[in-house]
Amino acid sequence: TDAEVSTRKKTFTEVQTERLDQAERTVLIKCPSKLSEKKLLQYLSSHGNVKSHFFFENRGINALVEFSEKSSIASLQDAVGIPNAAEHHVVPFKSRLFTFTLKNPLSQPAEETPLHLSPQCHIPVNDLIQKLCLADNISSQMYILLNEYQLTEENIKLRFLACSLVRDFARAYFPDSTVKPFGSSVNTFGKLGCDVDMFLDFHDTQKQATKMKKGPFEMEFLMKRLPSERLATQRILSVIGDCLDNFGPGCVSVQKILNARCPLVKFSHQPTGFQCDLSVSNSIAIRSSELLYIYGCLDSRVRALVFTIRCWARVHGLTNSAPGTWITNFSLTMMVMFFLQKRSPPIIPTLDQLKELADAKDKHIIGGYDCSFVSDLKKIKPTKNTESVDVLLGEFFEYFGNFDFRRNSINLRKGKEVNKPESSPLYIWNPFEQDLNISKNVNQPQLEKFIAMARESAWILQKEDKTQRIINKEPWGLAALLIPFGKHNSTKMKNRMKGIGSETIRSLLDSLKLNNANSQQKAVGK
């Protein structure tokens, strides 16, 4: 049950620390094509115990290998040679990325059992639709989608390794620094293939504070002073960007974007296959990642619904990987969270409720904003809501298809619709920086398109005859929502947008009756 899962769940910080530690004991090996897994592991074990490993495809076969002890890596590095510099001169930076080739390939028998390769990207939507049509019901379809799209254990290890490899560079200048992933790589809502957002962190503040109490002197390092923190960030990222560009094995297409609101370095990390964005410590972004982590861990329906809605939005062109006037995945996720806070009884707590559960160690005041909330999942009471995830999907479309966006804004701190503080078409309060709207970029046409799609989807889910569709070999349930609503629907759509189609009125009345019946049943159930 979900309740059991959450009692076992580790805190966000525990998971991060454990994975960063794992990554420090990990190497990445580009393998020869005819590889005996047994032979490779036998050889590697001569340097120390191999704790775990897996293979994946990325311009050939690669192995991620985690040793039990960090010292095994030094032992392996000692045995590895420098590439022959006949046609290329090399930058002699020794990393944890190696290429293994067979000394005499002909004498090697081919591996009897083929290697198991871990997938590092999700299946195309059309293949997904085929899979969904074989499910028993819409809830099953949603969990199939979640399973196909969510990050795997192996993919997460690869993400933390990419951060750890960048950290090896940063440490040349800043020996105490760490590089940590944030956002979708760690908030439980990342899908296979998403970018790795990472940040450089210099703050080991707790350790410093306790150390400084000792002795008769106030002591501090002499450090270069700059007129603003922003300038310091830009300089640090500029140098580390140059470093990755000039010396980083497998780092290509390095772009420094230093004048952005949040300065960053974008690059492609070929050995792991990830697109990476590196910035300097952004405490509020970490808090957002942890908040979503908590919501994602509390109840399995949360992630099933978010993955479904995001896939649906992508298919209908409501979201886009390029920045623009459309709704972002982050905004969409926050809309789902808000909807789940509004259920009766609520499925997840509001941010204010999480703040009330916080103790002294959960206190976080960042730039004058109170970002405190409980980190221990055991302290959060499981929900009493038993609605199935397919019911929630239909209700989500119904709720936002009829939401008064003109007047109301979405506030996750309170879990309430609040009057809009200003006239942006879509107003979603930033959960931490309370004066910011996270969906300020969204324009009226995009919002109207979202409302139209939500109404259309609610209508399809209500009116659909599953048996008939299966007989006609047509996609049904969630599969029907993941096919772009074609031209033949456009007149129906227009009617529904005006809200004048008699069908629409009837279906709205039906759904009201249904809702009343449901709530009566629930009342009786209690």
TrEMBL record:
Protein keywords: Magnesium, Metal-binding, Transferase
Per UniProt, residues of the RL domain are 11-79
For molecular function, the Gene Ontology terms on record are:
metal ion binding; poly(A) RNA polymerase activity
Q: Where is the PAP-associated domain?
A: 391-426
The domain of life for this entry's organism is Eukaryota
Any Pfam family from its record, for instance, is PAP_assoc
Q: Name one cellular component (GO) term.
A: mitochondrion
Cofactors: Mn(2+); Mg(2+)
Known Gene3D superfamilies for this protein? 1.10.1410.10, Beta Polymerase, domain 2
User: Which GO terms fall under biological process for this protein?
Assistant: RNA 3'-end processing
Primary gene name = Mtpap
Residue ranges of the Poly(A) RNA polymerase mitochondrial-like central palm domain?
138-296
Coiled-coil region(s) at which residues? none
Q: What is the protein named?
A: PAPD1 protein
